[in-house]
Amino acid sequence: MSFKNTSDWLNYDKEHLWHPYTSMTDPLPTYPVDSAHGVRLKLADGRELIDGMSSWWAAIHGYNHPVLNAALKQQMQSVSHVMFGGLTHLPAVTLAEKLIKITAKSLQHVFLADSGSVAVEVAIKMAIQYWYAQGKTQKQKLLTVRNGYHGDTLGGMAVCDPVNGMHAMFKGILPEHFFAPEPNCFDDGSTNISTLEKRLQQYHTEIAAVIIEPLVQGAGGMRFYCPEYLQQLRILCDEYDVLLIFDEIATGFGRTGTLFAYEQADVVPDILCLGKAITGGYLTLAATLTCKKVVRGISADGAGVLMHGPTFMANPLACQVANASIDLLLSSPWEANIKQIEKQLHKELSVCRELSHVKEVRVKGAIGVVELKETVDMKTIQADFVNQGVWIRPFNKLVYIMPAYIIKQEELTALTTSIFKVLSNK
Predict the structure, then answer these.
(1) Which of 143, 349, 368, 382 has the least C-beta neighbours within 10 A?
(2) What's the pLDDT tens digit per position in 162-213?
(3) Domains (ranges, CATH) in the chain?
(4) pTM value?
(5) Surface-to-core class of residue 247, CB atoms within 10 Å of its CB (0-12 exposed, 13-18 middle, 19+ buried)
């Protein structure tokens, strides 16, 4: 190894490695992880941090889980990777079977991609090709809502919030789609879906699909909304003959209290995107599921070839650990765990409402959010949390946690207590 000590390779990292959403000329501090187990990250200097982020919501079983470790070791002994073009393998077929079994009955076809952003790209392509194959080539636009987030690739960026999102500088380069206000629900049971309906009335001949994150808007603002909005949206999509895409990359596999968020609305999309927690955070993998209607529609011109094929599509290692992760989740008391986390978050984060610079506290499932009135200073607040012995990664005006489902009550209390302590000193 060319690096003599931790400081040596950290300096090299700072000089050469580009981290997510950071500047190379004025980088944010990075903390060297030596190992991870359960919900704890061990830094190179020996400090331990309780992880409140589950590695961007993916490591739902915690780190270094023996069942997931064993699945990888076993698969490596046979085949770690093989191209999916013209070949197939049992881990991929088994994963498809599991996904079909645990999702809505109509979702019978699975495209295994290699990241959440790519799953969204595939969904968009499916929708556009569906109409193209039927001769409706003008239906190339998407309709979505403000404060959404659907990934960092060009197609995903184009359906993120164009004003408040992270990709405003790419305006003019990205495809321009239609937007409606972010979902809001009112005490009388009504919603603000009327503006979205007007967009459909006016532009449905150009719109291929509506794409939305069901019930929880993730990185676009960590907003929650009611199931009634999705129920009304499904009716409108059918009425105006557009497809409905649910992006459950962040919410899938139990995060909101049901296995998938759409279950709480009793609404089924035409296309469903899954990712993040699908492998328990071990390897990058995602899936786009769809129904026979879409498959047959894409084949209406006699070709039926979906124009996408990642090199590492359906990677056997990723598929095998995904199979193990799903089995591990379903065999665990995950629903009870999520309810306990939700109850504890409600109780322990409520004290943050006392702080004058806190705008709102909200909780859904294993998601706890403290929204501030002003944007956080990442350089100082990140260090403050590390000094408290926790790993919490705020962004914009949001301090939030989405812990692993296996977190113990005292570990969760350490996270919530640190949030109150750090924010009390701001």
Answers:
(1) 382
(2) 887 767 788 888 899 999 999 999 988 899 999 999 999 999 999 999 999 9
(3) 31-64+333-424 (3.90.1150.10), 70-330 (3.40.640.10)
(4) 0.97
(5) buried
Cα distances (angstroms) measured from residue 126 to each of 141, 179, 273: 12, 20, 12
d(CA 182, CA 220): 10
* Banded pLDDT at 258 (limits 50, 70, 90): very high
Catalytic residues: 21, 149, 247, 276
Nearest-5° Cα angle at 392, 390 to 393: 150
Mean pLDDT for all residues in the chain = 96
Greatest Cα pair distance, the chain, in angstroms, is 65
Distances (CA, A) of 293 to 124, 125, 170, 243: 15, 15, 34, 10
**Structure tokens of 229?**
């909005």
Phi then psi for 332, rounded to 5 degrees?
-100, 165
Encoded amino acid at 154, one letter: L
Report yes or no: 3 and 12 within 8 Å, Cβ to Cβ: yes
- Residue that is written with structure tokens 């692993």 in the block: 404
